[in-house]
Design brief:
two-stranded antiparallel ribbon, about 400 residues, binds S-adenosylmethionine, globular
Length: about 400
């Protein structure tokens, strides 16, 4: 196995040649939102309640060309932000991206880009409340070392958002990666040549070839850009996970696994819900066995995305009626189309609000409690709880 220095040099060369993601620079603020990068939404997902503070510190570990960093800055105006990466060229693009988009205008808290290997994150001063590490750990020669380094920088009560590759949905990709490197032979590490070889292979294989069909169905649109094609097919270092190896990585972090940030995929009822017998038998499985079953039955999964946390992390229980009624609700900013009865939720799914739900949401953020608002609008308790379940509101608990 190549040592970490050799791997890092090869990875930095790839991203200096093809900075990623190759999203165009823009003179506008980043459009919309990704709720995973919005501290109150991420915190609310993980704990059930709105965080007490917004003046937090955020680390974007492996920021690339800064598309995610641009959102982290934009969505968290009171946060101090540090973004690190190996690649000098990617950092140059990131710095220019956030300068041009305007997210820095009027900010009082600092934003800093640093060329630093993630494994050396321990050198950063202080601790962070939110660490974002998307698409990076699987490119380290020793991801355990990487996750240990960033986990050590997570403050008590802090959250770490991770995205790493999944084996099952990347099977065809891994075959093509191996084919390209066989053909490249001693030219491996010449990424421009790797892209050329890969494109020629796709062009010459028959249309009904499995690798070609998969590329066309899933990736061809984004892979029109050489940087995306190179990131996918000619990477010098990639580790793909399955549920078992993923949880080895998670356990190594010594952080608490809070949950996948795409919970819809991890719902067993969408796969075996037609059979009460199967569903009840799955209840006997451990959490990890259940996840393994889901990925085996739906092997299209190409990545895992999830939150870890450093204790104390407690999920508030809103099932008690008094606790729920005494809470103060605020409308989530990760909603599109508000104020209207037809809106898009945090995952950009359409939600049609009843007149009562609409009136309830209009009164959120006015320091009124759930009980106060329910006394004013035509909505029952179950429907009010539904707004929380649909992630349209944040709640702050009050002693009842
Ligand atoms: C696929 S890109 C992801 C960029 C960004 N996080 C995103 O999702 O848009 C991977 C990035 O991780 C960086 N990277 C890889 N290994 C690293 C390491 N050991 N330390 C710091 N950055 C690293 C690369 O330079 C590259 O910019």
């Amino acid at each position: 196995m190549p040592d970490s220095q050799t791997t890092r040099a090869a990875v930095a060369k790839l991203y200096d040649t093809y900075p990623f993601p190759p999203d165009p620079l823009s003179d506008d603020l980043p459009p919309g939102y990704n709720w995973r990068w919005h501290w109150p939404s991420a915190y609310s997902f993980c704990t059930g309640q709105k965080p007490a503070r917004q003046d937090i510190r955020i680390l974007d570990a492996g920021c690339g060309t800064g598309s995610g960093t641009d959102y982290l800055i934009h969505l968290n105006p009171d946060a101090e932000i540090v973004a690190i990466d190996l690649s000098e060229k990617a950092l140059e693009v990131a710095t220019e991206r956030v300068r041009r988009s305007g997210v820095l205008n009027g900010r009082s808290r600092p934003v800093q880009f640093l060329q630093l290997p993630l494994e050396d994150a321990t050198q950063l001063s202080g601790q962070f409340d939110l660490i974002n590490c998307v698409g990076v750990l699987h490119h380290l020669s020793d991801p355990v070392k990487g996750i240990e380094a960033i986990a050590s920088k997570l403050a008590p009560g802090g959250l770490l958002h991770v995205f790493v590759y999944a084996q099952l949905g990347r099977w065809e990709i891994s075959l093509m990666q191996q084919a390209i490197s066989l053909i490249q032979g001693d030219r491996q590490g010449d990424y421009v040549d790797g892209v050329k070889v890969g494109r020629e292979l796709f062009a010459s294989l028959p249309d009904n070839n499995r690798l070609v069909k998969y590329e066309k169905e899933r990736w061809a649109f984004e892979n029109q850009k050489d940087a995306a094609f190179a990131d996918m097919y000619v990477h010098p270092q990639e580790i793909d996970y399955n549920i078992e190896t993923l949880f080895e990585l998670i356990d190594a972090s010594r952080l608490k696994f809070i949950g996948f940030s795409n919970p819809q995929y991890w719902d067993i009822t969408r796969l075996v819900g037609k059979s009460e017998d199967l569903l009840s038998r799955t209840e006997k499985l451990s959490e990890r066995e259940l996840y393994r079953l889901i990925e085996l039955l739906d092997p299209q999964l190409s990545h895992y995305e999830f939150f870890l946390g450093r204790e104390p992390i407690a999920k508030i229980d809103w099932s008690d009626e008094g606790t729920f009624l005494a809470a103060t609700p605020e409308i989530s900013p990760c909603i599109n189309g508000w104020p209207s009865q037809n809106i898009l939720d945090r995952d950009y799914q359409m939600v049609s609000l009843s007149a009562g739900e609409f009136e309830f949401l209009k009164r959120c953020g006015t320091n009124k409690t759930v009980a106060d608002i329910l006394a004013e609008v035509n909505l029952d308790l179950v429907a009010a709880r539904g707004l929380l379940a649909k992630h349209l509101i944040f709640l702050t608990p009050n002693p009842s």
